[in-house]
Design brief:
The protein has 401 residues and is α+β, with helices and mostly antiparallel strands. The protein has 12 helices and 14 strands.
Amino acid sequence: MNPPVRVRLRDENGEGVENTSLSVHHRAEVCGEVALQVHEGKDAMDALERLERPWRSLTGDSDPPFLTYTWNQAWYHLYAVSGCRPLIFELASGDRTLAILPCYLEGRTIRLAGDRICDYQDVIAADDGAASLLVAAAMEWLSAKGRGGHFRFERLSTEGRLFRVLHGSDDVPRSSLRFEKTFAPCPWTSLRGGLEGYLAGLPRKTRQDFRHSLNRLEKEAPSARVTILRDFGIQVSDLWGAAAFHTANFRKTGESPFRDHRLIDLLGRVAKDPEVGFQLGVLTLHGDFLAVDFGFARGRRYYGYLTSFDQAHSRWAPGKCLILRRIDQWVGEDGVEELDFLSGNEPYKASYTGGEAYQVWSIRLIPDGLAGRVRLAGLKSNRRLRQIAKRVLHRDEGLPR
């Protein structure tokens, strides 16, 4: 176990902090002596079990599902076992945990846990002050190691705490360099109290198209049924069947994320914890899938994680109808007020949301020094080349990474 990095603060009447590498922007929120504990490898897996109670207490009901303890616990046990090293930063004051940053080490790069299978990740913290102190102490720890490493926060929501801390220049540790860029939009929309209210708020042409799709499905496939499975009602066979359908009907570049069966296992684990709010929605006709939707109902928001429909029945717009038919259930049974499509600029999302979106950013924190400045220069040069290439190709979407 690594010795804790001690960070001593003045009390509420003090003028600042003793360690000049720390931001003082939030000094009034966290006072007293705090310590950063860095858990690596097996120590991180042991710490993960110990941190369950504080993790759950620091996670609000409306936080995205990717921040929940069960999601992260499942990810560490399934994904952080080969090719990467578990790494968890914990900021504590006495026996009270103030903030947790779940990460993993890939070579010399520190990344956020689950960043390749979730739409965004964040720090788990009591407030922005604790988050700011944790980041500053973690950067101090990384700089002291002197191995050329850096933090790569690949997906941060503009609604999240870590983005707020890092994007504001006053809160970035003074001993670090920062490189950031937008990653993708996250379209969302208000459900306006139910299906009729939602449709009434849409542009006339879109509203007519949605009503026409619903009416056509009802007329031509009256036996089509929507089934919503929640929590303990979700069986392993349900997940495998829906995942197989998603894989067979995957139309984006690359392949379905369900090709890696660990994702099916992860969803099976989180389904057993009602706190995560996992739901599996399916539209079927005589027992055959027409469309599937994997998502999460948390707080006032439904997060649409993965969806797919059978192209052979595109005349009925089954994916669209699955979403529209669920709106009244989301509002009435789950207390949902907003529909969040998570990250991605697929054109179909704009028809539901009217262009309303928050953003996901990529932010890197690099220890200041010669090696860090060389790395930063390389990142900026690469960004300029990509921008030139996009203009030449007349492309607005991101180039393959």
